[in-house]
Specification:
29% helix, 3-stranded antiparallel beta sheet, 141 residues, alpha+beta
Length: 141
Amino acid sequence: MSKRRATVAVRRVVLVVVAICCCALAGCVEWTEDQNGNLKSVGLPGLPVWQAKKPAPPQGLTDMPLTPDQASKVSGPVLVVPPDQQNPLTRYRYYETGQNNCQQDLAKLEAETRGSNPGGQPPYCTENPVPAPSKGTAFVF
């Protein structure tokens, strides 16, 4: 009878250890997707194990959150402000034709935020804005 009790105790200890390991590993899988839901990378947080070979295609103005009528009034570079500690979303500033002040606004923004986003990507002007990838995490048994 004591041999059976020892076996049951060992099984319980193993179950407790497995449960603790599962809790410790929760959130250790992360993936990113582009705006269309295509998988871009899979891996540990900050350390992708697999990445897509093909970069995201540049987005046209009608692919961004603009109606075709609004897109026809916009031209020139777009100011892209990557996520930071205060705002977790990528922001885009479009300019009407003939009123594009992207470089001036970029200089003002850099002067205002100098040093406030250490390690983060700085804002920039671009003709072809690419939407930021979305991230997800999962726990796999």
